[in-house]
Amino acid sequence: MEAILTTKIPLSLSSSSSTSSNTPSLSLSSLSTLSKTTKKLSNTLIFKGTQHCNYPSSLKICAMSQTAPASVEPSTIPTEMKAWIYEDYGGVDVLKFGSNVKVPEIKDDQVLIKVAAAALNPVDFKRRLGKFKASDSPLPTIPGYDVAGVVVKVGSQVKEFKVGDEVYGDISEKALDGPKQFGSLAEYTAVEDKLLALKPKNIDFVQAAGLPLAVETAYEGLERAGMSPGKSILVLGGAGGVGSLVIQLAKQVFGASRVAATASTGKIEFLKSLGVDLAIDYTKEKFEDLPEKFDVVYDTVGEGERNVKAVKEGGSVVVLTGAVTPPGFRFVVTSNGEVLKKLNPYLESGKVKPIIDPKGPFTFDKVVEAFSYLETNRATGKVVIHPIS
Ligand SMILES: NC(=O)c1ccc[n+]([C@@H]2O[C@H](COP(=O)([O-])OP(=O)(O)OC[C@H]3O[C@@H](n4cnc5c(N)ncnc54)[C@H](OP(=O)(O)O)[C@@H]3O)[C@@H](O)[C@H]2O)c1
């Protein structure tokens, strides 16, 4: 673990002083032929309840159901918490573990969440590197957009959630424009109610934490591209956090007639397990040289002018990163709890499944390792941090 940070960052104090943590009881086993961590996971996590596996594929991801977390009374909310923070922009070495960071106070439209699990996104490390300095909130920063946890306090204007609710969401409405200074890599985080949804009961906190930013990006991009039943789509970067959800939403929610996606050799079977009709190994084939063209190209990789060569005349090209060549367009996701609510039935029915990278979940003291892994650009699905304590 990194050095313990002793300076207190300027978060406002909550009103009570107990130090109870009440971390919900969770368990998850990620088993994979790609993963060397299976043994370690099964040795260190407590398995309870019924096992349900998502994919009978080479990338086999199983989750265990959990016992309901105990509700946290407002009187048990501590004044200080553990959190990862950085005071300067830079590499993973700027990340420090703070054990006496003040618990945020909530505004009228916010709830305080006891964080059960948090997920990392590339925006977390790009932001930490200072790429969005001009529009970032001031330092010091607690990173983390994605959260799943339990509501422990509600603001006076919050109607939809109550203490004890299990919720999930992307806590920063605008990913790049003034994202929250105090994010989800902490024991507690304050979030506007409109950014949250109740966690589907059939998925655990680890799975829920991996969804919000990625699934909202997948959904918003497909909507903006005019994806609709009967259209075909090519997903560039199909094995990543966003791409693996674009594939599933295109098929299950938007009614795509044909889904193609790219990944490297070892992830081709995984793409097939997600339901792709055509899995393209980008180490062997150039997607833009295929005779087949697509109504929509969804580029999560940043393939520059190559992506527009794969689209049909009049089609749409969504670009999440890198250079944009017309008719391609880029957008930045807006966090919106309504999208999660809309997608909850698909998650509850199992039509859309959260994908958790089998190297995780990473425990709270392994956040630096989790960032380093995400920054290799080789993650499959989501890199999740759990438990948070
Ligand atoms: N604009 C927005 O609102 C927005 C929102 C979310 C994300 N993003 C951006 O979108 C990008 C993807 O995000 P993410 O969360 O999905 O990242 P991620 O999970 O870290 O993506 C990792 C995946 O990318 C795949 N990949 C890497 N190079 C590839 C290539 N040349 N062809 C095909 N697949 C390739 C890897 O598969 P292999 O190991 O097989 O190569 C790996 O599975 C990031 O740059 C992120 O910042 C933008």
TrEMBL record:
GO terms for biological process: pteridine-containing compound metabolic process. Residues 271-389 form the Pterin-binding domain. Gene3D superfamilies: Medium-chain alcohol dehydrogenases, catalytic domain (3.90.180.10), NAD(P)-binding Rossmann-like Domain (3.40.50.720). Keywords: NAD, Oxidoreductase. One of its GO terms (molecular function) is zinc ion binding. SMART domains: PKS_ER. SUPFAM superfamilies: GroES-like, NAD(P)-binding Rossmann-fold domains. InterPro entries: ADH-like_N (IPR013154), AOR-like (IPR044626), ER (IPR020843), GroES-like_sf (IPR011032), NAD(P)-bd_dom_sf (IPR036291), Pterin-binding_dom (IPR000489), Quin_OxRdtase/zeta-crystal_CS (IPR002364). The keyword Transport does not apply. Belongs to the zinc-containing alcohol dehydrogenase family. Quinone oxidoreductase subfamily. This is Pterin-binding domain-containing protein. It comes from Chenopodium quinoa. The gene is LOC110708694.
